[in-house]
Amino acid sequence: MTTDLTRRTAAELASSIASGEVSAVEVTQAHLDRIAKVDEKVHAFLHVDAEGALGAARAVDAKRAKGERLGPLAGVPLALKDLFTTRGLPTTCGSKILEGWLPPYDATVTRRLREADVVILGKSNMDEFAMGSSTENSAYGPTRNPWDLERIPGGSGGGSAAALASYESPLAIGTDTGGSIRQPGAVTGTVGVKPTYGGVSRYGMVAFSSSLDQGGPCARTVLDAALLHEVIAGHDPLDSTSIDAPVPGVVEAARAGVRDGIKGLRVGVVKQFAGEGYQAGVMQRFEESVALLRELGAEVVEVDCPSFDYALPAYYLIAPSECSSNLARFDAMRYGLRAGDDGNHSAEEVTALTREAGFGPEVKRRIMLGTYALSSGYYDAYYGQAQKVRTLITRDFDAAFGRVDVMVSPTTPTTAFKIGERADDPMAMYLADLCTIPTNLAGNAGMSLPCGLAPEDGLPVGLQILAPAMADDRLYRVGAALEAALLQQWGRPLLDAVPAL
Amino acid sequence: MTATTEELMDLEEALARFDPVMGLEVHVELGTNTKMFCSCPTEFGAEPNTQVCPTCLGLPGALPVVNEIGVESAIRIGLALNCEIAEWCRFARKNYFYPDMPKNFQTSQYDEPIAYNGYLDVEVDGRTFRIEIERAHMEEDTGKSTHVGGATGRIHGADYSLVDYNRAGIPLIEIVTRPIEVPGHLSAAVARAYVAELRDLIVALGVSEARMERGQMRADVNLSLKPTGAKKLGTRSETKNVNSLRSIERAARFEIQRHAAVLASGGTIVQETRHFHEDKGTTTSGRVKEEAEDYRYFPEPDLVPIAPSREWVEQLRATLPELPGARRKRLAADWEISEFEMQSVVNAGALDLIEATVAAGADAASARKWWLGELARAANEQAVELAELPITPAHVARIVVLVAAGELSDKLARQVIEGVLAGEGDPDAVVAARGLKVVSDDGALLAAIDEAIAANPAVAEKIRGGNHAAAGVIIGAVMKATKGQADAAKVKELTLSRLA
Asked: Which residue intervals define the domain Amidase in the entry (chain A) (predicted)?
């Protein structure tokens, strides 16, 4: 184990703390120091809660001193995406409209993290209300990719992914509505998992698109992601869409993947996710990974999911529709920004002025798209049709999973692009989520894990693994097996190649 | 108050020229202990904004969870209204901005109501009208705004507004009728009778106290006119939040007269919402519906569909209490009165009181006599509801028993009632304190009779001559002498035998 605490995995840190080799306070302080040193360049955090983090760490050390049993991630630091409410800690969702808001309650994910003695370092940067694929839509300035500070870290959860890749935190929480965990994972060389819809409570996770949003774990290794997955997942009576069933045994699956391998596993390569728009180096690493899976004993077949071609347009009707309604509550009446309240404007005008001043252009674009799509006379043609496409996509998944255990694809068609490159071209930006969106529409589970660097630009490439709903454990089994094989090829973790900041 | 005065047509003339068509939308606040989508308490009258949580305040991230008692209440109301109960239905979001609506959408139901296709029979003037129910659906209430300053008490022109979110999220059931077409002169009465019947039904189900003065039940009266005999419906107005039975009747009448005047002068009715003014009995224009928002309904993604099992529905059906209509029929038969007479009992608000009085030992006819007679008069004089009089069914039953036993005459009984109403105690206490007792001691009575005969020799002669009706004078004199405590029948009997 390295002596640099920030380079250790979450699993290693947890065991070091449990054994008394290091204290939780030392671990937390090491990460706070790292943040102080590099976050000026990376801007992974919107808010660092040094005091709260050290307090939580001291509590872990006290528990240990008293001989109390510690949870599997006790004392391990984490970056929490700013979409989750944190009692008494700023929660902005990357938006000016929530600047200064101190939530009076914890999200269920926040509560579970606290109960598991995970140390929350602070709130990570994100595209405003999770709308974007580059974190450039944050009202508080973009996050930079630690691999190349001129490049985007993906989005919307770029802050979480960059915190991992810059060694500011060994764990992070993301949310994935169309790929916001997986795509940042891919372009930063980290692991990100979108659990089955309903697997992780959405209570206290500020809604973008309720039927698509799903919180999930982000980490530098598959096992770390699994450990975090088990902390945050499970039924929550406060979320009606939460699944009331045991959480799939993802930690055991991750261990089994390394121990037992994946011989006999049936893997489907999605036919639709290739061709024009896919970077050569991305396809090369992807195909090598498929070959490696074959070497590991998997049976690889091509699967045809024709409806996936309609996933992107369907997504850009459903997500904006729901967001137009979800974001209506930001009206300046009860919390957040209030503009124009000078005694000369009516309540209605104050609401309009506040929304004008408080929302960024991408959020406004989506609210307008959604308002239009839900309008009387257009509903059937837009929202209604999109829901039908959603059903077709689910059927394609069902048919494919009748033949294979998991499906694979590149996570995103290209490596990290340059900041500003797609900022004025929403369609180009939306294409970053081409391969991740079908899973959100169908509600099943997906993972992105690093599978190499693209030869042409030396930037990380992500492999996406998809599993049926409630079969999240398969992601971890396959992911861990592949991760181990890749590590053997590379001789060191991919992230070791991140330039010094 | 808006200054526009409306031209009105005389009601008789309006009804001669036009046929009214009504639709009623009634909102009932359920009396559940907690709100529809969170576990906040629902007590009426708490300090503003003390019964709130992240969910009913619409805080970012908060999510709704359906109150199962709310669903059960909705199904029971649906069953009582003879509705079909959906096997599968969803909530929908009704999107519009208003400061007292925390999420700026109302969680409601749209094209998939929990109950639909029902009816409720109401009686007016001895006739039964079947009011068809289109749907009953679940939704949440909004917060309550108080607009301070300005002339109208509405948001426009107010200096500032206060919002109380205690009401936000309280479960509501909205019950919508199909168009109601009844003879014009009865339409306002039918509207009132429907809401009254619905209120009684809701109370009988125990799902709400349905107190209109507290806003626990509010009616929107939709009304349009068409020329007598015409088929095509006219344009309607929607008079919102009418808060008493009397107001429903008045609002309907006013709108009939207003519509008629507009139509007769060649004008057109604007589809709009209107506000009813209790003080003047008038309505004024609210917002014009054409400009109203598109609510952009879509299925609520934060909630899962509701699929009440048939077993559950049948279990709820089997455990419905006796409903008001059936109860009235049963009691009318028990009390041996006609449906028309029962109507008077109901209209007087005496049904529960008489039933309780009978249960306390009175006979039905006497119970009915006192409540609809002496007590109704007293209530009327004091301008209170019958049930609000400070006399209980047990008191009335005791009085009935005393009269039947011959211990009180009707006249004395009235004095006992007067005493009870005056707060002098229960009937026995009043009897004792006022010394009210029928004098039936022959000796005492004969002395008084002899005195009366002596004072009225001419009358005595007539009685002797066989004119028994003349005995009234003697009886009156005896009653006077005994301060009304004599048993009149006994006096008559003794007088006649004296003068035989």
From this structure: 26-475
CA-based nearest residue to A358, from A92, A72, A27:
A92
- Work out the minimum CA distance from B289 to partner chain A, whole angstroms: 15
Cis check: omega of the bond before B237, within 30 degrees of 0? no
Q: Say if the Cβ atoms of B163 and A328 lie within 8 Å.
A: no
Domain residue ranges in chain B:
11-316, 324-434, 442-498
Sort out which chain B residues have CB atoms less than 8 A from A91's CB and list them.
60-61
Which class is A5-308+391-497 in CATH?
Answer: alpha beta
CB atoms within 10 A of CB B441: 12
- Decide if A393 contacts A308 (C-beta within 8 A): yes
Helices (H), B82-216: 184-205
Contact call for B93 and A348, based on CB within 8 A: no
% residues pLDDT > 90 (chain A): 95
The phi, psi pair for B256, rounded to 5°, reads -60, -45
Cβ of residue A93 closer than 8 Å to a chain B Cβ: yes
Query: What pTM did the predictor assign?
Result: 0.90
Q: A378 in contact with B at a CB cutoff of 8 Å?
A: no
Q: Does A329 touch chain B (CB under 8 A)?
A: yes
Residues of A with a catalytic annotation lie at 81, 156, 180
Judge: domain B442-498, CATH 1.10.10: yes
Give dist(CA B62, CA B488) in Å, integer. Answer: 76
User: Domain spans of chain A?
Assistant: 5-308+391-497
Q: Which of B62, B105, B302 sits opposite A240 (nearest CB)?
A: B302
8 A C-beta contact, residue A208 and residue A330: no
Q: List, for residues B257-289, the tens digit of each pLDDT value.
A: 999 999 999 999 989 899 999 889 999 998 665
* Residues forming a β-bridge with A407: A268, A466
List Cβ neighbours of B55 (8 Å cut-off, separation of 6 or more): B37, B38, B40, B62, B63, B64, B65, B169
Tokens of B461: 């002669």
Measured in whole angstroms, the distance separating CA B405 from the mean position of its chain's CA atoms is 36
Q: Considering only CB atoms, which chain B residues are within 8 Å of A85?
A: 59-61
Whether the pLDDT of residue A494 is over 70: the answer is yes
CB distance B302–A375 less than 8 Å? no
Other Cβ atoms less than 10 A from the Cβ of B320: the count is 12
